[in-house]
Structures are given as C-alpha cells and as structure tokens.
Design goal:
The protein contains 2 helices and 4 strands, in the order βαββαβ. A 4-stranded antiparallel β-sheet has the order 2-3-1-4, covered by helices on one side. It has one domain: Alpha-Beta Plaits, CATH 3.30.70.60. Helices cover about 25% and strands about 50% of the residues. It is an alpha+beta fold.
C-alpha cells in the first residue's frame, strides 16, 4: 500500500483560542497509523488564526475519514477541512 500526504486546516472556535493547546491535542488525537509531518499557525483575518496540520497516512480506505473525525473532536476546534491530498 502507498502513502498519502494530507494537509488539514483546523479552525478554532474564536480568536481567544489557545492554538498551542490545539497543536498538542492533535498529536494525541490522531489514529495510530497517521504521523504528523508538520504544523503551522496561519493568520486568517482580524486576529483569527488557523492551524495547518500536514500528516502522512496509508492510502487504505477509511483512514482519511477517521483522521478528519478525530481532529474535529478536539476541544475548541470549530471545523476541519482537507486542503490538499496527494500520493507520495
């Protein structure tokens, strides 16, 4: 099976949300077969920031969906969006 690189954008519930806390929670929330490649906080507008999370996972069925669902369950995360996806 091949590997897939996926970039997620996590939007917080508000401008006062601790982005470092969300970043720490990402590492524990991910399924075992998914590893973090990198994370970056990006300014969006008017003090709102997003956390960009790049991960590597296998291309087996259901892993992407389960990863997205796990990230959406992190406290203070309002939404999760797949920004990019590509085979390695």
């Amino acid at each position: 099976m091949g590997q897939v690189a996926v970039l997620f954008r996590l939007m917080p519930t508000g401008v006062e949300t601790n982005m470092e806390g969300i970043a720490q929670a990402v590492r524990t929330a991910l399924p075992e077969s998914v590893r973090v490649r990198g994370m970056q906080v990006k300014d969006i507008a008017f003090g709102l920031k997003a956390l960009l999370v790049s991960v590597i996972m296998t291309d087996e069925g259901g892993v992407l969906d389960s990863t997205e669902q796990a990230l959406a369950k992190i406290p203070h995360v309002e939404s999760v969006e797949v920004m990019e996806e590509g085979l390695l």
